[in-house]
Amino acid sequence: MAIEVAQALTAADVAAVRDLAARVAAADGEAAFDEQSLLNLDGGRPVRHLIVRGGTERPDGGARAGPDGGGPAVSDGAAMSMPDDGGSVPIVGYAQVADGSGEVAVDPPARRRGIGGALLDAVLEGQGGPDGPGGTDDVRVWAHGDLAPARALAASRGLSVVRDLWVMTAPAPTKVPSQTEPTSAVDGVRVRTFDPGRDEQAWLTVNGRAFADHPEQGRMSRADLEARMAQPWFDRRLLWLAEDVNSGRTLGSMWVKISDRVGEIYVLGVDPDAQGRGIGGLLTAHAMAAFAARDLTGLELYVEGENAPAIAVYERAGFHRARAHVQYARTGSH
Question: What positions does the entry give for acetyl-CoA 1 binding (predicted)?
Answer without folding.
Answer: 104-106
